[in-house]
Fold this sequence. Notes:
Elements: H1 5-37, H2 44-61, H3 66-83
Amino acid sequence: MANIKSQKKRILTNAKRAERNKAVKSELKTRVKNAKASAGTDAAVEDVRLAVKRIDMAAAKGIIHKNTAARRKSRLMKSVGSAN
Length: 84
């Protein structure tokens, strides 16, 4: 355990951020999974839109890298497009 006061605070701050990031990443996976599952149905367009929105928001917040976001969106569009 750290003895320095600022480092103790940093440990707490990092834990909060990690918890928040974990929740966002989990939601990303869920949205992408739902979009892929609904491919070819009426709800597919809305599910894909929500998934892309969440991916963009995560990239904007710095939770995932912008190139990672672009890659995930590309793969999502490719898989949903081929399902039709």
